[in-house]
Write a structure and sequence with these properties.
Blueprint: E1 8-13, H1 21-33, E2 39-44, H2 51-54, H3 63-67, H4 73-76, E3 78-81, E4 84-87, H5 101-110, E5 120-125, H6 131-139, E6 142-147, H7 151-168, E7 172-180, H8 183-200, E8 204-212, H9 215-222, H10 227-230, H11 235-249, H12 260-273
Parallel strand pairs: 1-5, 1-6, 2-4, 2-5, 6-7, 7-8
Antiparallel strand pairs: 3-4
Helix pairs in contact: 1-11, 5-12, 6-12, 7-8
Length: 275
């Protein structure tokens, strides 16, 4: 890699579908871009693209074109505003869900060309705990686990954290409560998860706050727009800006782990070992 500056790499995950993970990824990326950080949002649900659907984009090229050698990553990136671009995934492409070692290496090598164009890389992972999800999460410096007030959400988030801790010795996770009715509800969700992890795992969880349940989010989805853009004064939009402020305060490591090289090396390494 030619990049020498640290790039903040954040994987947004949840262990299941339906927790609003893609909405979180899109609006967090947008909120960070509004602080004039150069943000790239990568749709890492490689076989079932969500980001472009949520934002009403119709990309002419996707990650599949990069892997097929038809173009470089810079040609795939879709500008969203002056500071934010999106790397769209392909939709309905089964082979994209199980990339080979070579394909993973090609995908990550493609980031070499754009590494100096970003300050933050937000990775919107697929639902579940597939090899692809695990590889992307392991490669990131920051793991943001999204939970909502459903028993399966807490259970699946725990399963993801347990797998990453047991098999890959990952010990630090940040937790965001989504679609909460009150701030206390969010804290209660975090406490449920923390109680179980404290008992059975050697991990540290940090609660980073909550996003309130807000009809504006549903209306924004119907408009195929980010709530920050469609309803910038809504409760959810305010919460996303507060979250972005917290993210900016997270330390960016200046060791190799803090560079995009780390994302590259870990993702390729994970694909190579088949994990």
């Amino acid at each position: 890699m030619t990049a020498t500056k640290p790039v903040r790499v954040i994987a947004v995950t949840g262990g299941k579908g339906g927790v609003g993970k893609t909405n979180v990824s899109v609006n967090l990326a947008l909120a960070l871009s509004q602080t004039e950080q150069r943000v790239v949002l990568m749709d890492a649900d490689l076989g079932l693209a969500n980001v472009d659907v949520l934002l009403g984009l119709k990309p002419s090229k996707t990650i599949a074109d990069v892997l097929d050698g038809r173009c470089g990553l810079s040609e795939v990136m879709v500008p969203y505003n002056d500071f934010m671009s999106i790397v769209p995934a392909s939709s309905g492409t089964q082979e994209m869900t199980a990339l080979s070692v070579h394909e993973h290496a090609e995908l990550i090598h493609a980031f070499n060309d754009v590494a100096d164009q970003m300050d933050v890389l937000v990775v919107d992972t697929a639902a579940g705990i597939s090899d692809s999800v695990i590889n992307f999460v392991r490669a990131a410096q920051e793991v943001l686990v999204v939970v909502c007030d459903e028993p399966t959400s807490i259970t699946d988030a725990y399963a993801l954290i347990k797998l990453l801790n047991r098999d890959y010795q990952m010990t630090r996770f940040r937790v965001l409560a989504n679609m909460v009715r009150t701030e206390q509800e969010g804290r209660n969700m975090f406490s449920k998860l923390q109680t179980v992890t404290d008992r059975f795992l050697d991990v540290t969880l940090q609660y980073v706050g909550s996003i309130p349940y807000d009809e504006s989010v549903r209306k924004a989805v119907q408009r195929q727009a980010a709530v920050l853009k469609a309803f910038p004064k809504s409760k959810a939009a305010l919460a996303y800006r507060q979250l972005a402020n917290k993210v900016e305060s997270w330390p960016v490591l200046t060791t190799p782990r803090g560079h995009l090289e780390f994302f590259v090396e870990r993702l390729v390494q994970g694909a190579r070992t088949g994990n």
